[in-house]
Design a protein that fits this description.
mainly alpha; 14 helices; 76% helix
């Protein structure tokens, strides 16, 4: 009975390591052939990956604070650890998409700029300000010793990525986003449900505005991507995650 239910939803256990290998640097053993085939379908796991990453960052930050490290320094180290866990994937995406969308006279040129590994003034400014905003949010949560909030922030900030992969076309045929592919409606719905469960379990009814604002906050970037490159890339997904994380942190800190 359970297997039939999972078959209808097109959920497989291989989706879990597939999602982790896509979004983190965790050394997991995975069948890369199967992972490639399931890349888009594994997007339902993204909120789970985000929640676990948030948990790790929260444990590190709160553990340091508990032994006497100043909360600001604890927050900074937690963010550094998180970037090590992900390989700076989302931060790199944010800086690249800001550089690309902010420059270039044609769609092709903007995509070329986004693909360039070098960082420009726009990207550097965006990266610095977003890290500063995240640091302020982490610092506030560490000050009130609220570990579960980190789980909610991590989960809520990954949901916009799934929704963009479902609702927007690809801007180009190459790159990581194109390799992963588009997300189907069932996969997006499962991701929404999982995000709700994780966030409600972590922060109660504050989960609803936190998730909503995390998703809404990324809409201007999506609109700009639609206008400037006619779709999304992996860099746009990274930008949406970073914006969603800041929005979730801002929402949670309202009650702190």
């Amino acid at each position: 009975m359970q297997k039939n239910w999972l078959k209808k939803l097109d959920i497989k256990l291989v989706d879990i390591p597939t999602a982790f290998t896509l979004l983190t640097r965790f050394p997991l053993s995975v069948d890369h052939a199967k992972a490639g085939q399931r890349a888009a379908k594994a997007a339902w796991v993204y909120p789970i990956v985000g929640g676990i990453l948030g948990l790790f960052a929260g444990i590190i930050g709160l553990a340091l604070s508990t032994i006497g490290v100043q909360s600001g320094m604890s927050a900074a180290i937690a963010i550094i650890a998180l970037m090590l866990f992900t390989g700076g994937l989302h931060e790199d995406g944010l800086s690249d998409c800001v550089d690309g969308l902010g420059g270039g006279n044609t769609i092709q040129r903007r995509l070329e700029i986004m693909k360039d590994s070098r960082i420009g003034a726009f990207g550097a400014a965006a990266l610095c300000t977003t890290i500063l905003a995240r640091w302020a949010g982490y610092n506030a949560i560490i000050n009130v010793d609220w570990l579960w909030a980190f789980i909610a922030v991590g989960a809520a900030s990954r949901l916009p990525m799934v929704l963009v992969m479902y609702g927007m076309p690809l801007a180009r045929n190459g790159g990581l986003a194109a390799t992963v592919g588009l997300v189907t409606a069932p996969t997006a719905i499962i991701a929404i449900v999982i995000t709700l469960i994780l966030c409600v379990a972590s922060i109660g009814m504050l989960a609803l505005p936190t998730i909503a604002i995390a998703v809404i906050a990324g809409l201007p970037l999506c609109y700009l991507a639609w206008r400037r490159i006619e779709g999304y890339t992996g860099d746009i997904l990274g930008g949406c995650q970073q914006i969603g994380e800041i929005a979730a942190l801002a929402t949670i800190t309202i009650i702190l």
